[in-house]
Protein 1
Amino acid sequence: MPNHTNTESMKRTGLILLLMCFALLGKAVNLRYSNERPLIFGIDMNYQPLEYVDDAGIPHGLDVEFTQELMRRLQLPFTYAPNTWENIADDIIKGRVDLGMMVYSSYRKDITNYSRPVFRLYYQIVHRDTDKPPYGLRDVSGKEIAMMMSRPMKDTLEKVGAKPFLIKDLTRALTELSKGKYDAVICFRYQAKYLIEKEGLDNLVATDLALMPREYCYVSHDRHLIDRINNELEKMDEDGVVEDVYGDIKTTFSGLYIPMWVWLLITAIIIVALICLIVQQRIGRKHILFEMQRAQQSEELKDIFLNNLSHSLRTPLNAIIGFSDLLMSMSKNDMPEEEYQHLLELINNNGLQLLHLINELLSLSDIEGNRQLFERKVTDIDDEMTAYATETRMQINNGVELEVVEPIGGLRAMIDPKLLRIVTMHLLENARQHTTEGKITLSYYRKEGGLYVEVKDTGNGLPAKLKDNIFALLSDKNTYVQEDTPGLGLSICKAILEKGKGKIGARDNEEDGHGTIFWYWAPVEILN
């Protein structure tokens, strides 16, 4: 009997050990990495102090140290693939290496997977100490500014009239700057501090730029790997590992005096966010759910809606928080007055943008609740359309023509001119944003006892996946116009016309071979 008991006990123990082995192996098997096929971590050969390779070919740097701890926690075997930055970036995007670290970019977010940020990076402009302060973006017009490749930064410099000069070796660029080759170099704060001290470039000075901080993340083509990394990064942050490794280069705010206006700003942001949530709930129960059901609750459209709504709220909020973080990281005396005022202007502009989104949400809610007044009166349609075209011509791209096709003999109608302007200008704005060459045509005439208006462009055309839902709340203005202009314009147009028993639609511009035709019809009284 004792032998039988010992045998059963050994079986149970063996089964438990076997299950534990499978559980431990399952983590690596699920991610397809093993000792025979280790995870390949791509690093830049010369990106000090984050990652670099010494003369013996051995990887060093903070990223290497941090990733070693991350892989140990995930129990994933891995190896390094050092290369030049342009090659590593291409290898990561195309999946030739499994993992790397880079700055988050909205241009790449749809072609790869980013982790939650490990820490944030702040920009500085480095110049010679003989240059007269202040030195910021408003002082670089006409000057040659060296920088590593960054599309957002390159666009920003070109907008302020600077001459961006793309470099591949930041150490060499700073050395050349000290000798007078460039007017300035733009890089991240930790890079400027490290390289100036390392190279002994005593004649260089670094000044903070009033720009939104960037997020430094892990990036991979493997979505499951990024999910696992996200879970572990949260634990590493709580355990203080991030601070232990990156503490000398990440920005901290301990011991700083935070002015009262900053607390008031944060309070206002929280209130605005709560208002947005309340408004969203108000219109959500009777409009969003209805539209989602009518679209048969398409998973793709749900993703579009959530992405757009979060983007609409997050974009101005991130800017406000990022710029206020920058203000909190230094005293007012450490920043030129012009840069300080510029930061306040940016915070104010993004606050106004957030207010614009809230107003459009409230406007849509008013229309849905039958509180929008339709004050019909005698309106000269010719004069109104001419005014809309004149206003739009002032903003269209060079090389784009805007033509107005009006009916012979003119047109007057009983219509609310305010609502006529809202709908027509939204359609013209869509055409303007998406037409970089060719022609925009605004035409209108009497049709079926009402007013028919058509805006035709030779632009990008309708996104295929949104053709049936372009006017629905699920596909708000973000998805068709541009990401940096949040709004619900097309949804508002649809709501206005439906309340007035009208119609609105869109189709491909087959006449010109590309582009879009937006149209609407309103059952109004035509007077001539």
Protein 2
Amino acid sequence: MKVLFSMMKYIRKNWKLWVCGILFPAFFSTATNIYFASILQDYVAIITEHQTSFQRISKMLILTLPVLLLLSCIDDIGLYVFSLFLASTENELRYDFYNSLVRTPLKNLQKLNQGEFITRYNTDVEQSAQIVSYDIFGVIYPLIVGTGYMAAVLLADFRIGFLMLLLGVTVIILNFLFVRRMKRAQAEILQAKETYVSNCSDAIKGKMSIRQYSAQKVMSKKISDAANKLYRKECRAVQLETMKLLTSDAVANSCIYLLTPIACIMAACGYIGVSVVLFIHQLCRCFIMYTQNFATSFVHYSEHSLSFERMNSVISFENEITESSVNRYGHIPENFAVTFQNVSAAYGDHQVLKNVSFTALPGECIGIIGESGSGKSTLVKALMQMIDYQGKIYIGGENCRDISLKMLRKYIAYSPEHNDVFPTTVYDNIQYGNLNAAQEEITYAAEMAGIATHREVFLQRNIGENGNQLSGGQKQRVSIARALLKKAPIYIFDEPTAALDADSESKILNTISMLKQEGKCILLITHKASTLRIADRVLQIKGGTVSQV
């Protein structure tokens, strides 16, 4: 029930759709079938009369058909409304899932691999939406309809009604016996899917290396093993489903096959009329069908609650903009000097930075060097408040912890080492640096980043998934152009020339020199000695500490 209470907020958002979608089909479906069963009873009663006219029967049919069609149409409208509620809820869940990913601290995104995120977004979100839609529908709808049918049959004949109730309860109990086992099987299937998706993702990412190093067999075996494991788990689920068919479904079918013959025998013995037999047959068939649905809904709820727990672990990620940070404004710094004062940072038990202290002044370019994993990128993440750290970082005398994240990141333009790009045009990728920038500003930023040849054509090029339509150097220039477009007082360039030729590197260094003249504070992370010539000072990170070269 805890899962259901957690999902109630999605019902409250569209409660009108939910109420109409639940109640309309339930009440009007009950009315349709009971009315139809009673009409059948009346037909038989009329037909068995000795003085029955064709005109009387035709009149009855003409009056009955529009009523049945009207009730059926209202039932269908209710189902359509409920489908709208399901689509709306699923959309809300996907938005919350995405919103959590883009707002949570980076450390949370490292808890799961890409395959897990994809599986939870595609599979678990869809199944979680079923909890407040068809799982609840599958309980309330049969409950209302089944109760109506049961009352009608009990009024027609108490003995048949009691036997029908007994068989229905048996069906529900047998279904409940499978709940835990089917939930466990579903959990194993979802875990196997995550492994399979993750392996496929690795194969796509490493497509060139796989061919270069003839690793096709190794990757194929990993994917094949994951697929076989998924197949075995799904076979287990099929076995459980088959066992359910042979038990609870068999009892359900016996209700259909048994109660009508019993009613016929009672009619032959004179206990009930033939018309009552048809009435009972029609309602017994519908009753047991909805009883099966009622029990199955609890099984599905158990499986879907597992998906919700997996999805909710992502939606529940903490927001990096906490309530305490919303009110952090600080003051606009008098200048934009960056000062690190005894800053330390660690990932688990691994200490990356130890009491780092230095100051980068406006109009100064600080080169930062160090081996891979020495803490260069950690230094940048600490400045942008993306990781936890000890010590203090100041911008112009203002503690970064006292400045709102929105304002803080407005001061900083960052070109990352791995050149984050999005599957759209080059122009749109650069525009992310300043969504309000004019076309001339975007073109100028591209020029300053060394995008010169066929610039207008290049800006309209679609870079494809993961930027696979651009070379490494082209992606690097796009990332730099985006940072330049921001026009911030502090610039961070992480390996800005790693994939560039000498001419392109010279252009970038000229741009950095121009930024220095404008009084920008620049942190330049690089391994290339040729790039370091633009730096006023060079700091080396080694063993977690900083020393000046």
Protein 3
Amino acid sequence: MPIYHAPVRDMQFILHDVLKVSQTGLPGYDDLAPDFTEAVLDAAGKLAQDVLTPLNAVGDRQGCTLENGIVRTPYGFDTAFAAMKDGGWTALDCDPEYGGQGMPYIMGLATGEMFVSANMAFNMYQGLTHGAYSAIHAHGTPEQKAMYLPKMVSCDWTGTMNLTEPHCGTDLGLLRTRAEPQDDGSYLITGQKIFISAGDHDLAENVIHLVLAKAPGGGEGTRGISLFIVPKYLVNADGSLGDRNGVSVGNIEHKMGIHGNSTCVMNYDAARGWLLGDLHKGMRAMFTMMNEARLGVGLQGYAVAVPAYQNAVAYAKDRLQGRAVTGVENPDGPADPLIVHPDIRRSLMDQKSFLEGARMLAFWAAHLIDRAHGGDADADGLVGLLTPVIKGFLTDKGFDTAVLAQQIYGGHGYIEEQGMSQFVRDARITMIYEGANGVQALDLVGRKLATDGGKHVMAFFDMVKAFCKEHGDGPLAGDFIEPLKAASKDLQAAAMFFMQNGMKNPNAALSGSYDFMHLFGHTALGLMWARMAVAAQAALDGGAADTDFLNTKLATGRYYMARQLPMTRTHLARIETGADPVMALPADQF
């Protein structure tokens, strides 16, 4: 069975050496002393390692079943879900007014990484609930908040988001689900939704569905869409559960991965629902949930690859195969371990340098979200710019990393009992759901770059420039600062190409959007690695005892800057070819 070790030391380094969370003055951050965060992360890591990890393969093998209208989750999921609830993990960063612990978002993200790494399919039950909680918290009436949020914070009730229909996914303007207003202020929801993660299950008393539907008078396209709260069981005025609502499971999807999560076809047959937010403004309310979900999927993208890498390292150290070209390194054995070979080292360094950079980027984004919650509009704009990069780049590279880890095993990686294929299969969905990565790239180039007149992308460029200027004469200049400067120049050149060519030929910009997303992702990770390198060097200069960890951090960062960051040049060269190579063939010649 695959292993998983919670990376508490690395998380502590990011929180305290790089972000210096307890010194920022943000609400709730004063409590984030190193001893406190270590205790929280250790406890979460123990739950992840001891309870969730052993169930990962169980969920993959058993999957979910639909029996007489009831969805059954895999063996042991109910006990694990009770442990998650009893430990207060579902409430960690939720509002204390509704039973939450009120910790900053960054702590919820850190523990969430561990839970995803240990068992991605299982964690989705509470992860989707958190997104639904956030939407109701942001847009609900006081009565709706009081009725739903306490039970959702505790995960006595779970939540979902219902967007996709059989005939429309990305283009939600085509949806057909209808909402008919009733005299009592409710609506009757009729339609079908597909691909609904955690759509129904036996882990909670109730499921609170957030459903996009069209009410009369809204007009065509997305302007006519509203968002509705549609509970599986109706809720009485006193908070008790009433009759079963007109919502049922039509089928459980048979998927490539995440078998332990119940991905359902949901049928709404005059189900009673209540408007969430303003009428015909459902997309605005839904995007509160979608933006959180996209950051969460970016987290999934790299987090599911963390145990894949950990297992690949263990296998490479144990598996004997051939001899080192520079001489025997295991004289007492018939062969040397795989890890002596340069190509295996290359693969493992590709994995390690991406995963640690991705973690830093995710934690920094969470820090920006906490700043935005404190009223920092610039932080809010910057995290909005980064959201499609985090979702798209981290999931693309996370899947690639899981494949690299599987490859270390050779043929054994293709055998199911080794468990490596599950990481690959689970990681694959992250590139698709919550907006396929091509859509993320279009959103980045078509919308986010120009938001507020380009203010936020210029702020990112200025941030990189200021950082490089501050550290340009230091000991890390050659290995970290100069490569970061070069990558930033490539990113600026790509943005300038879009400005000069995009208006007269939009295809010139959109043909390069995917490359731009990856160019931006590499540059962002370059900045993250430069920041981590400065922190590691400062700790070494200050006499820190953990020299092995810090020197390893510097060596890993140097690898990324030397071997991965130069990919920005390739992406820029592809962008600058424009639309002609992409659009040359007529459709009938494909």
Protein 4
Amino acid sequence: MDNSIIFAVGGVILGLIIGFIIAKALEKNNASKLVREAKKSATLILKQANNEGESIKKDKLLQAKEKFIELKSEHEKVILSRDKKIAESEKRARDKESQISSELAKSTKLNQSLEDKIKDYNHRLDVLDKKQEAVDKLHKSQVQQLEVISSLSAEEAKEQLVESLKGEAKNDAMAFIQSSIEEAKLTAEQDAKKIIINTIQRIGTEEAVDNCVSVFNIESDDVKGRIIGREGRNIRAIEAATGVEIIVDDTPEAIILSCFDSVRREIARLSLHKLVTDGRIHPARIEEIVKKTQKQIEQEIIEVGKRTVIDLGIHNLHPELIKMVGRMKYRSSYGQNLLQHSREVAKLCGVMAAELGLNPKLAKRAGLLHDIGKVPDAEADMETPHAILGMQWAEKFGEKDEVCNAIGAHHDEVEMKFLISPIIQVCDAISGARPGARRQVLDSYIQRLKDLEDIAFGFVGVKKAYAIQAGRELRVIVESEKVDDQKAADLSFSISQKVQTDMTYPGQVKVTVIRETRAVNIAK
């Protein structure tokens, strides 16, 4: 039993060994076949690769030959161009050499001629020196003969001649200077008149007279009752909000607005127009409309100022000065609208400055701003003259010294330091003196001047007194025997204090006391 098992196991093992051997033999056979097939395919691939390599090699060789031929032709072209440039350079060099040779020949000839001329010049100098010596000898002999004849030395004769010529020249010079001064005065006066006349003729503006009241027209008298309101509450609210007195009387279809401030009157007029148009008139609505109108007027003031400076060609003006220019529209001076007056003065100044060869833009600027001190300001000192106040504002907002001085000096409050200052003063006087420009009560004006002079005559030692410059200056002439220099100074102060306490006047009054001594003798 055991032997049969052993034989069976041995048979199985032997069968496995034999099967393994047979499988290896078959695998080896298949591997050899695969190797042979691989060698064949490798040989084919190598052959194809060699063929393709040969074809690529031939193509590359052809391309290389073509590239070589192309580069060779380009190289030949470059060489030809270089050779051409070299030939041209050589030709230019040869031309320059020939030109230099000719110039050298010319310079040689010139040098030779110059040397000849120098020799000739030296020869002539020698001749002139000899002749000068002969002339000097002759001159000395003649001077000696003249000294013997006149019994005077040469120096004495020279001094006498110089003195006589000096006296004649001095007399002639004085006569010439006098005639020149007279002619210059006549010419200057004529030219000044021409310039002023031409300036006035070239400027023409309309004049508008303003006053302290405005008339508000209404469609019917029924509106008056609505404006007054129950127990007058509406009219009181309007007056309180605007600061304007409203006069409602029997005048048909009209209401009077009274106030010295034109801006407040305009605010009240526009507010009434809006209230009447809207129909709702009560205190709350009145305050709302007045506030809106105030903002509208402030904006309109700025727009008026901007339009004015643009029309006059003035640039880089400070916004605050632009606002002041706009407020001039609602101000008047002696019945003359301040904005129209300032525009007219600016145009006059520009024309006159151009005629005199000065800067017309700077003159226009000063002319427009010369009366900004008349525009009321909450911080302004009302005791300060408007010219000084305007100068201070101009300095504050960065205006040039010429403009500031012209503003401050146009009523002689400060000294004029620049040429445009008298132009502003003259043009301001021209604009104010134009017929119909300003409204003044002649009787009160004359009376004010007489009162000024009467105050001066009330002091001891006063000989004459004159109110000049429209009452802005009082010139007092005293008797030198009764008033000495110290008393003259005291008298000027006393008269100014008397004028200040006894009179009412715009601006300021300058008191000038003149003490004159004369020594007179008669030559017979």
